[in-house]
Design goal:
It is built from 15 helices and 16 strands. Helix 8 crosses helix 9, helix 10 runs parallel beside helix 12 and helix 13 runs parallel beside helix 14. Helix content is about 30%, strand content about 15%. The strands form three sheets. Strands 1, 2, 3, 4, 5, 6 and 7 form a seven-stranded antiparallel beta sheet that branches. Strands 13-12-14-15-16 form a five-stranded mixed beta sheet, sandwiched between helices. The chain has a four-stranded parallel beta sheet with strand order 8-9-10-11.
């Protein structure tokens, strides 16, 4: 049974979380919490973010202090076992801000951003709260005593940590931070607390590759099972890079893959898992076959580029066998006969193969067009960083030689932003209007099948307004909540 007690504000509360919505039949709904309320405290504890809300609401009965119409209201009730609290907040951190990075890594993508783009693209985020909540990789170089107390007390595990090098001096050079703490000491402290940590090494030729990389891998392996994985990531450099570094060449990518394969054999014998995992880009650059999904040992690190290509290929085989091969083209009742699939240059060969198979089995004409990134440079080859202006200009140019499809299919991840816009602030509808034909968004070939058959596809017409969510959990690290 709930009780509402209206109170005068006694003193300013340090944090206030704006409640966006309250889930029906949740504990908060039963207590009378409303969307628009500002959460001030739970069971007498001030809450500075959703982590505190989760932590302090674990007990029952509950007292929730909210601010409503300039009055503080105490709401009391009981939360049953397994009953959700049911609060959705405008921002996961109640100060709305995100913790800034205090490093100046030469390979930092923010420091290589093209000029005259939106403000938030120049914010360097390094927030341990986002690491715990959403799997963002952070360096642990900007933590104060209060942060460490929270990490310990609330057991904020797992964490995702950008290591780059375990050697202290090399890591400080990687971060361009002469006072960066010893990452091994920090990880050992987390080991003493029985934490789970996933790490990454962004490999830059001449900086942390070769023997430095070998040392890092084995020193991190010595911290198993606290350190559960190492993602090995190739450095990405835009044309605005100022520090004279370069990307990994195809033969270097092949060497990294061969070395990682040898390490995986070693670690599978020791730990039962591969432990060190090269991201997909290495395989595509070196022209190696991507490994099976089982080789990733169940890790959910797609956002870091692990296993996305294999998932795409496996999903396509399932769709091809179960939804296409068992039918004829006529039974699809396709709404179009010609589609154009658009991607960036790195993934284009893989998509070409799937598109050719799709065309052969469906009877449709399926084109693939690879887009070059002119704003960030030819070295940026991934779909998530494609610019709409490049898509529009290059498709118009190519249409002079070959007609475009009746529908243009773009990668959904290109618009994975709270406002559903690309890096250069263009919406899918804006692209549709510029090309004067429908634009559809897809992640996998099953989405393409839905597009041509009209089954729940995310399609934007040039002359129609469509408001549908595009972004999925784990979108843009900085801009998702800014």
């Amino acid at each position: 049974m709930k009780q509402n007690v209206v109170m005068k504000t006694q003193e300013a509360t340090a944090y206030a979380g704006k409640i966006k919505a309250v889930q029906p039949r949740s504990a908060a709904a039963a207590m009378g919490v409303r969307g628009g309320d500002e959460l001030l405290a739970i069971n007498g504890q001030s809450c500075e973010d959703v982590i505190d809300v989760q932590f302090f609401s674990a007990d029952s009965p509950l007292e929730i202090l909210v601010r409503r119409d300039d009055q503080e209201i105490m709401l009391r009730g009981v939360r049953r076992y397994y009953q959700p609290l049911g609060l959705e907040f405008e921002h996961p951190t109640f100060d709305i801000d995100i913790r800034r990075c205090n490093n100046l890594c030469e390979f930092c993508f923010v420091l290589q951003m093209a000029p005259k783009m939106r403000r938030t693209l120049y914010i360097k985020d390094d927030d341990y709260r986002y690491s715990f909540l959403f799997g963002h990789f952070v360096t642990l170089t900007n933590l104060n005593a209060h942060d460490w107390d929270r990490i310990r007390e609330q057991h904020l595990s797992p964490l995702y940590v950008s290591v780059h090098a375990t050697d202290l001096e090399v890591r400080r050079r990687c971060l361009r931070n002469a006072t960066a703490p010893d990452i091994l000491s920090q990880l050992r402290e987390l080991a003493d607390l029985n934490f789970e940590v996933h790490t990454q090494l962004v490999i830059t030729p001449g900086l942390n590759d070769g023997e430095i990389m070998r040392k890092s891998v084995h020193e991190l392996a010595a911290l198993w099972p606290t350190v559960r994985s190492i993602s090995v990531v190739p450095v990405g450099l835009t044309k605005h890079h100022k520090y004279g570094k370069r990307a990994n060449l195809p033969d270097e990518a092949a060497a990294v893959l061969d070395q990682c394969a040898a390490w995986q054999a070693e670690f599978r014998a020791q730990f039962g898992v591969g432990f060190v995992y090269p991201t997909d880009e290495w395989y595509l650059v070196a022209d190696y076959a991507v490994p099976s999904i089982a080789s990733y040992d169940g890790l959910a690190l797609h956002e870091n580029g692990l296993g996305m290509v294999r998932s795409f290929l496996d999903e396509w085989q399932t769709v091809r066998h179960n939804e296409i091969s068992a039918n004829t083209a006529i039974s699809f009742a396709p709404r179009v006969s010609h589609i154009t699939l658009v991607t960036a240059t790195l993934f284009a060969p893989t998509l070409h193969q799937a598109a050719a198979e799709f065309a052969a089995h469906s009877g449709l004409t399926v084109d693939v067009i690879a887009i070059h990134n002119t704003r960030l440079g030819e070295g940026i080859t991934v779909a998530g960083l494609m610019m709409a202006e490049d898509v529009i200009a290059q498709l118009i140019e190519q249409s002079a030689d070959r007609p475009l499809g009746q529908v243009i299919v773009l990668p959904r991840i290109m618009f994975d932003h709270p406002d559903g816009v690309s890096l250069d602030d263009q919406s899918p509808k804006a692209v549709a209007m510029a090309l004067n034909r429908p634009v559809a968004l897809a992640d996998q070939m099953g989405d393409v099948l839905d597009i041509v058959t009209g089954k729940g596809a995310l399609v934007f017409e040039p002359d129609a307004d469509l408001i549908r969510p595009i972004m999925r959990e784990g979108g843009w690290a900085v801009e998702k909540y800014l």
